[in-house]
Specification:
Blueprint (H helix, E strand, L loop, with lengths): L3 E8 L8 E8 L3 E8 L5 E5 H5 L12 H25 L4
Antiparallel strand pairs: 1-2, 2-3, 3-4
């Protein structure tokens, strides 16, 4: 599955909540999607952004198989984090 990650952010979720990653990504057949991934496997939510903008959060209307997207999303997060770390390391003085 080819996903184009558009934006990535990590959220601490306050001082007591479980941290999570948020991604906006383009899925070829579904359009622009929002994913929320917690550290624990299988804790993933995926929603279509256009439907969200219309207020649609209903099951079966704006619900997607997180288990299908999860491996690709976690791989994309790893790539983004590696790129950000490399960019940070490049900016350090020797």
């Amino acid at each position: 599955m080819k996903l184009d990650i558009l934006h990535y952010a990590h959220h601490r979720n306050g001082i007591c909540g479980a941290p999570f990653d948020v991604l906006l990504f383009r899925a070829p057949e579904e359009g622009i999607m929002l994913a929320i991934l917690f550290e624990e496997q299988s804790h993933v939510a995926v929603l279509n952004v256009d439907k969200l903008a219309q207020g649609d959060i209903a099951f079966r209307s704006n619900s997607w198989r997180g288990d299908v997207f999860e491996p690709h999303l976690r791989h994309g997060i790893a790539l983004v984090k590696a790129r950000l770390e490399a960019e940070h390391d490049d900016g350090k003085e020797a």
